[in-house]
Write a structure and sequence with these properties.
This protein has a domain of 111 residues: Herpes Virus-1 (2-Layer Sandwich). A hairpin with a 6-residue loop joins strand 1 and strand 2. The longest helix is centred in the middle third of the chain and has 30 residues. The N and C termini lie far apart (87 Å). The protein is mainly α. It is elongated. The chain is built from 6 helices and 4 strands; from the N terminus they run E-E-H-H-H-H-E-E-H-H. 9% of the residues are buried. The structure holds zinc ion (ZN). Zinc ion (ZN) binds next to helix 1.
């Protein structure tokens, strides 16, 4: 079926059965409505999702099948965002109990591709916590989880760094080297 679109006048497939507009114009109108008032647009789509769960499920599934790459990316992004939000909530809880400053927002947390300490590739959202999981370190522990005082490094690096100062880490490294040398001599 082809209609003459009421918005652009082109003869195209209608956005849906019985529509007088083509899908491109319908999407434009949607985007414009969203830009004009995002809150009411969000409310409207939330209501629609609530009232038509089966339709939404089918449509989402169809979209995922049509765009498998994007679907995978979106899932990964969702996992990362939620992981960050989730761990910030946990950290905030612990910080509050310890009377430690906290003012972090998810947007403050930028996860680098590799651990800045060891260079290993950080693995996000792929199951269990591991040495390569990203971890939020407090540069100066007593300053707490505040903007500017946190860095994302690997869980391994963070466990080793802990609250140690550079001098303490050097002493530990020197001691370990000495002891290993002694042990290997035997
Ligand atoms: Zn049109």
């Amino acid at each position: 079926m082809i209609v003459k679109c009421k918005s652009c006048g082109r003869r195209r497939k209608p956005a849906f059965f019985g529509s007088r507009h083509c899908s491109a114009c319908r999407n434009d109108a949607r985007r414009a409505a969203y830009a004009a008032s995002p809150d009411s647009a969000k409310k409207r789509s939330a209501l629609y999702r609530k009232q038509n769960p089966a339709k939404v499920r089918t449509a989402l599934k169809a979209w995922r099948e049509k765009h498998p790459e994007k679907a995978r990316e979106n899932l990964q992004r969702w996992r990362v965002r939620n992981r960050v939000r989730n761990s910030l909530a946990n950290i905030k809880h612990r910080a509050k109990r310890a009377g430690m400053p906290f003012d972090l927002k998810p947007s403050d947390i930028v996860i680098p591709e590799r651990c800045p300490v060891f260079g290993l590739k950080l693995r996000i959202g792929c199951g269990a916590r591991s040495d390569a999981s990203p971890s939020i370190d407090r540069l100066i522990p007593k300053r707490g989880y505040v903007r500017g005082n946190v860095r994302v490094i690997s869980d391994l690096a963070n466990r080793i760094k802990n609250t140690g100062t550079p001098r303490q880490h050097r002493l530990v490294a020197d001691w370990l080297e000495r002891e290993l040398r002694k042990a290997n001599r035997r």
